[in-house]
Write a structure and sequence with these properties.
By secondary structure, this protein is an alpha/beta fold. The protein is built from 30 helices and 16 strands. Helix 8 runs antiparallel to helix 16, helix 9 runs antiparallel to helix 10 and helix 22 crosses helix 23. It starts with 10 loop residues before the first strand and ends with a helix. Keywords: ATP-binding, Nucleotide-binding, Transport.
Amino acid sequence: MANLKRNNAFLKIRDLSIVFRNKGKKFKAVNDTTIDINRGEIFGLVGESGSGKTTIARSIVGVQGLNDGAIYMNDIIIAGRSASLYKLNTSITYKLKDFENKVYSVTKYLRYLLTDLKKTYTDSKSIETIIKKDFLKKINIDKIIFIDDMYKYSLNIINEIIKIQQRIINFVKNIHIQVPKIPVELEQSLLEKQKQVNEIIEEIKLKVEDIYISTKKIVDKSKNDLEKTYKFKDLLSTLFKNLDFVVTNNNELISKINVAKNIQNENTLLTANERVKNKQLPKYYKKVYVSRKNFIEECKNQLIKLSNSSLENVKEIKLLNYYIKDFWSKSNMNINYCFKIINIYKSKNIDYVKLNNLASKLFETDFENDLKNIVNNKKELTDSEVEDYIKQATYIKKIIDRDVVKDDELVNKYNEWKNIKIDLSEEEKNNITQFIEFLELPSIDKLVKKSYIFKPVSRRARKENRRNIQMIFQDPSSSLNDRMSVDEIIGEGLVNYKDLYKSNEAKREYMDYYNENNNNKITDIKTIKNKDVKKYLILKTIKSVGLLPEHLSRYPHEFSGGQRQRIGIARSLILNPKIIVADEPISALDVSIRAQVLNLFKKFQKEKDLTFIFVAHDLSVVRFITDRIAVIYHGQIVEMCEADELFKNPIHPYTKSLLSAIPQPEPSLARNKKSFVYNPDEEHHDYIFDLPNFVEVEKNHFAYLNDREIKEYKKYRQITN
């Protein structure tokens, strides 16, 4: 997946998901799509009707809302929002809970089933032989079918978890490069925790697969030889043996779920917001640290014990007194007044009466005594010294607010006084300490949102994006207003973006054009009227699409289909967009004029360095016009590569079926042509076990395949080469 992402890509689509709702049901029109499109290329989106290609196109333009994912142009977000690691991890947590509930339900159901089977065995001891059909009624095979369905459902949940985990890894990997405020250690910790969850989830998946295969065998065998007679004990013995395997593996599954939940909870907490993390931090503090309140109280207790003892404890008493005197806590330090003193020095408006009043309220810690000396001696502070004091005070306040002693020496002292034994290895202690450090960092989602790359779209930026991304529609007749003249239609965009004709750049261009074609020259752009520049831009645009100036006064119904589409193209071009989305722009046109419209796209691609997203289902047209093609099926990109490569070497079965459907104009060849029928259930029968991924099968040739399909393709290539 990493190779699919291009560092120099102009338009980046990341994890795009669009869901439609109808009568309480959800329909996923676009499914976790990731595409990179280069500047100045014509990128083709191909698929049958209802595949989701137009939905993707509309989302790029901004007229279709996104349920998930984001779209970036020049590394700035233009639609959607950046992934929230906390939401993704929370989603995994919920799915794990759902999975756990299903497993516990099956466990309970299995227990009842075995009890019923034992009762059946006891009640039917006299039966020696039985017809299989009667046996299935006796044991109630529907119960086993239900268990089989539950395990299949559970397997699908695990597959969904694996997909979300992969998305998290893709997002977190090297995120410190894009968001420098995220420490490398935090990124590595997130990846390490994710790896731990992945490993246990993979183990769980293997267990569920084994159980599902076992129950499926029971169900499949129950459909064969229904009229055949068997020994009753043999049938029951085989069934008990198979169910024993299911029960054993199911029990192992439950223990693995608990491990996965514990690691995943830490993962979720690591990506949570600060409010959630602060609630959970005390639980982890107790494992390795000591409460500041408890520590200072115990210091006082120890001092009372030692004060009446021999002179040998003088050193210890001195140390305890120092701890009590210089201990940072709410009761032992006035940190708020420290900040007030520092802020007065920062403001440069020194009021010593106010400073002396504040200093008198400070306690006897070293930091406070230092500030008191500065005030009493009327010492002046430089800007760098003030900043140092602010940093120290901020650090002290953070420790006071956390209310925890972290110093190993002090923690060991406290445990020694209280005779507490910590039952943790050095490695476990270090892991917890490191985990606490990461929990104390700002929320990773917060840091991501603050980054310019992931900053949400402002209203002003949204308006600019609408200008930069224009759309050409499928039906030129319905996309043009019959009550507006061509002049009004093409100039409509300029009404909303007046800078395009009011700018000095536009006026200079008009002045050059005017001076070239007229004897009375314009020497000062200030004399140029805005309406003249606007008229010039409309005139220039209509000429560029092959129409005449006299057409401006006419109305859409006076033109042919091809001419109407040219008007639609002109309407898009006048705004100087960076991207044009062409949604099947020639499907409603006669064959004779399709090539003319396609040639216009090629022309503007070269002249204006425009990026086109060309949506179509006619592969022969797409091959002619596009640089790269993405094939989409039911909202999922199944193949993507250069146009010629797709026709020479189609990899995905759906792509093969699309290519085989292209009409052959030569009758003799058409009669011998064999169509490839795409049957997803047969082609991808093992997707529930072996998940597909969008991988680079050949250089710059990506396909949505699982490991089995990749091996089969490589084997085929070896034979054919």
